[in-house]
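We now fix the convention by which a protein and its fold are recorded. The integers have meaning only within a learned vocabulary of local backbone shapes. The record below shows the convention in full.
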Amino acid sequence: MIEYLRLALATCIVLLPGRVAARALGLRDTASTVALGLACVFVAWTVVFTLHTSVHFGLAVLFLIGIALFLVARRVRRVPRIAGHPAVWFVGIVLGLLLWHVAGPVTGDGLFHLARVRKLVELPGLHLRSVDELAGGGLHPGYAFPLWHGFLAFVASLSGLDSGSVVKHEAAVLTPLACAVAWEAGFRLFRSRSLAWAVLLAQLGALLFAAGHGGSFASLSLPATASRLLLAPVALALVFGWIETRRRGYLVGVAAVFGELALVHPTYALFVLMPLVGYAALRPRDWRVNAAFFGAAVVPIGLAYLWLKPIVDETLSHNPGPGERLAGLLRYGNQLQVWNDHHYRMGPGTITRAGAVVILGFALIPLAGAAVRRRWGSFVLGGSLVILAVILMPELFPRFADAVSLSQARRSAGFIPVPFAVAGGLAVLCGITRATVPAAFIAGIALEIAYPGDFNYNLAYPGPAIVTWWAAIGGAGAVAAGFLVRRHRPFIERRWSGGVAAAVFVLPVAISGFIHWNPSERRDPGALSPALVQALRELPAQAVVLADTQTSYRIAALRPVYLVAAPPTHVANTRSNDPYGRYREVEHWLATGDPAVPKKYGATWAVRGSRLYRLSP
């Protein structure tokens, strides 16, 4: 509990300048605080990297930013707070505490991110290349500016906890924030507390409960998950806050959060924009308002992409050649429908693989046609159809995959506005029949039994493909019907009943999730021996270490050092990194002891088996 409170206090302090900045702009919601707080973190780390200083200097800069903003905010008249609900924070805190107990060891991608956070916390004279994992390597195109790693480094420094504890447990502290911004996004779109709860419950059902073991929320401290579960709802809440209130402060927040998305996980900035393009296409009369938020979003994204372009051009998965494209199709083949290497698409069953809530959301997408003239109907229908068109059309998807990489293109399906479809669709059904609430409970049980979801890396149990086609074809028909057929009386949405229906539908999913409420991995299968860990703690900072790739991966997470090689699947496949070439050279050294390998990369330390030793110069 003491560690939780230390992490929570440190997180609040890091985001406090964002709260003050929001107040200065006349905003008082959680989404603005998060967006502007990370903007202040970005400024602080930019100063650090420019002056080649340390994390402590960055915290001092952040403090000065907060003071300056406070002096400005004092002159701003008091503004009303968004009509929030303390129960949202209560639910988020309870779930966060529960997640604390299912946090397993840091493994997989978490080791890569932990290594970067550790370097930012422990090294002096920081610059952008300080967080590289490989000696003589290059910047990672997805994390060239380590904004999220910098946020975690500030939290680690302020809390006094080891970087490993922060990466392992920060998800528990971020969960209340993720709940609050999801609720705010639902409230801004529906103008209903009940349907805001429905959006939040659908989000929790799909991404926390369905998979068990804490779901995606258990990895909320990692950049990709934070982008999807925290920054994406922040972006939607701010966009719809602007559309609703026309306060220009929201445009500043929109610019900040899309710029942050472009740095924290570049492709996700594009994925969040895609459903907003569909929304705007269905609301041409609002073109001035829509153009304003698109301008605020596109400018920072464009600047970030322009800066990243030279690094992206080095990445072999971007505009891949025939060999790289074939390797990608073989790697993800069971998630695709492939005719040839230029003609393939996402498998319809892959898109609905994530269990009962996602299946229900897809089934309800066409019902948004009944409210296509309303904001939520336009967003659900337009947003869903844009993404479905891209991932289901074999003429479009290969081009999309070439632009953002096949690995990333698959993830765009996760940005279909399923939680909003669940909330709005159930409200529509409740307006049609009072039997919706009990039917939702029965459907939740049935779908959880029939399609509990497949959350493994290799897909074995796809979801029902027919639901995907129903969403795509039925949604397209619903758009036409919604605009062409004129109703003689206003359509009734029963919002309170819709919220209740969402709650009872998610209940069986939540029960199943709590049945599997334990760490997905209780121990790291590749953990280093205690004796080696003790020896590695004496390694000097910034040493270059030569070892097999799996051992190297864990060494970098333990100490702020650089590696000769790391597992190729966890390294950016750029020409300067050459992960597969380095892997072959390390295997050659392990087999022969060839001194040319450590000499080539300037390695000063090596590990064989469980023994650490210094290499001769």
